[in-house]
Design a protein that fits this description.
Elements: E1 2-6, E2 13-18, H1 21-24, E3 36-41, H2 45-57, E4 64-68, H3 77-89, E5 97-102, H4 104-116, E6 122-127, H5 130-136, E7 141-146, E8 149-156, E9 161-165, H6 174-191, H7 193-207, H8 211-231, H9 246-255, H10 263-280, H11 286-298, H12 311-318, E10 331-336, E11 339-343, H13 348-354
């Protein structure tokens, strides 16, 4: 088992990574009381919910469970209320612990519910997708979507622990796995050129889900995110670099009403647009741009935006993105491979030049 600590003073917490942790890691170690509610979805529940409930039962915890519909389109206030309904129906008090068992949607909604229920209760992240394991489960960003934009309603609220069982990736569909690789590649692009080179050399075993390669990719990704979060928990500065490709990607998702591309697929295409803009501004070379695009393509991700989204669609939807500060669009761009900046200082004509006509 690998353990990484997110250093946040008294609220520091571990990220534990290993095979079989759903069975071997006692979740009761992170409970604050005798109550627990496992929140999952209809896809994950048949595979992993019995294991989680057995894990808790062995520690004398008779946990309740709640199954939500699966999909980004259900990440809204209506679905969030189902969690509150379950908590009140089962009479959970302020010492309860919510356990998020699933991907990023489940993690975000469960964390937001924990932040709100009785003004804040304990929660644990147990991510079962690669994207959630390397990104959304770490750092305390919790939210639901609004019709006007993605993750517009939420809170920064840290978990008590993140338990990553790499065996869950064996049941992950290929498309979901590729979506997670977008976030892994992101860490190399924004913060670690050596890791980016390692990914290029190891993309084949990674896509074949070699256990050793996966464990290293997850560990390095979590180490980078833990470091960034510790430096800037509420995204007042450096944490925003974690959004490379996301402003473009969120526009794609909103345009499709969260019904077509997966989040990681939209981010993959978005990172290529960000890299192209970085190249047109003279920050990176054409060779650097092609390296990024080739690696993203090798991970099975889209390299172009959807055919039916226009430049006007992009600009309009990016204007609604929550990264717009004081009326100015901020983008995460590359200074070099392995280094990113957050800036509003880019020529609008160069931005328009990388968007579809």
């Amino acid at each position: 088992m690998i353990e990484i600590t997110v250093e946040l003073g008294e609220r520091r917490y571990p990220i534990r990574i290993g095979e079989g942790l759903l069975r071997s890691q006692s979740l009761a170690d992170f409970l604050t009381g005798s109550q627990a509610l496992v929140v999952t979805n209809e896809t994950v529940a048949p595979i992993y919910l019995p294991t989680i409930l057995d894990n808790l039962s062995k520690s004398g915890v008779a946990a309740d469970s709640l199954m939500l519909p699966d999909g980004e389109r259900f990440k809204n206030l209506d679905t969030l209320n189902k969690i509150f309904d379950g908590l009140t129906e089962y009479r959970h008090n302020r010492t309860t612990t919510l356990i998020a068992l699933g991907g990023g949607v489940i993690g975000d909604m469960t964390g937001f519910a924990a932040a709100c229920y009785q003004r804040g209760v304990n929660f644990i992240q147990v991510p079962t997708t690669l994207l959630a394991q390397v990104d959304s489960s770490v750092g305390g960003k919790t939210a639901v979507n609004h019709k006007a934009g993605k993750n517009l309603i939420g809170a920064f609220y840290q978990p008590k622990a993140v338990i990553i069982d790499t065996e869950t990736l064996k049941t992950l569909p290929d498309r979901e796995y590729s979506a997670g690789m977008a976030e892994v590649i992101k860490y190399g692009l924004i913060a670690d050129a050596d890791f980016l080179s390692w990914l290029e050399l190891n993309i084949e075993p990674l896509m074949k889900r070699d256990s050793h390669a996966i464990a290293r990719a997850i560990a390095v990704s979590c180490e980078i995110k833990a470091r960034v979060v510790a430096a800037d928990e509420t995204e007042q500065g450096v944490r925003a670099i974690l959004n490379l490709g996301h402003t473009f990607g969120h526009a794609i998702e909103a345009f499709q009403q969260y019904k077509e591309w997966l989040h990681g697929e939209a981010v993959g295409a978005g990172m290529i647009l960000a890299a192209e803009l970085s190249m047109r501004m003279g920050n990176i070379t054409e060779q650097d741009y092609l390296r990024a695009k080739t690696l993203i393509a090798a991970a099975g991700l889209p390299t172009e935006p959807p055919e039916n989204i226009s430049r006007e669609d992009f600009l309009s939807l990016m204007g609604l993105d929550k990264k717009v500060l004081d009326g100015r669009l901020r983008l995460v761009l590359l200074e070099s491979l392995g280094e990113a900046i957050v800036t509003s200082d880019f020529p609008i004509d160069k931005l328009e030049s990388v968007l579809p006509a």
